[in-house]
Amino acid sequence: MKMKDLVLLYQQVGMCEVGRIKHHLKHNLWNPKSTILFVGYQAPGTLGYSIVNGAKTVKIFGEEIAVNARIEYIEGYSGHADQEGLMNFIYSFIQKPKHIFLVHGEPESQEILKEKVKSETGISVTIPEFGETYDIGEQIEMTHKVERKIPRTTRTEIIERLEKLKNEINDMDYYVRQDMENENLRDEDIFRINEKIKDLEKQILNVIEG
User: Fold this and answer.
1) What pLDDT was estimated at residue 62?
2) For position 3, what pLDDT does the model report?
3) For residue 122, which of 89, 92, 86, 91 has the smallest C-alpha distance?
4) Euclidean distance between CA atoms 79 and 47, whole angstroms
């Protein structure tokens, strides 16, 4: 394989959700001669997660892109401590904590770590849920719990999706203007870009009018 056929991309910002990485992915994911190398954790629901976990196609700037490139992943470069690192942190205490709250991580991983901490150290562990309040004294006791009357999607996720949409529009604006400055751009490319903009315009209007 010639080096010109090999493209190594490092996921830099937001699990491939924002920034120039999306532009690079758009122009290289379809190419079977390209290799996309991920060296960081990819959260569920993100573009990076979909690619790493075998998606055949992904949507970037409103366009369906085939994932034909070779996808590689180096897990060891993640910025988060793994299970062994967290256990070593607990062991490092001269005076062991009486109780541990696990407040970050995927549910399955949290449960596994909880059982491991309890069985190997004897320290009790709590995985708090949304809206729970605890009294931390001689005894750890939950004093209050807020019941969700409406799904999380109706508030927090709406704002998150709105911010994501704004980033998509900003990215599209930047790269469409770059494409328009390309003197070698074909008529069919201009037509395709224009149709994508029309499609995005319809989606935004549907949201406003709906």
Assistant:
1) 76
2) 40
3) 91
4) 19
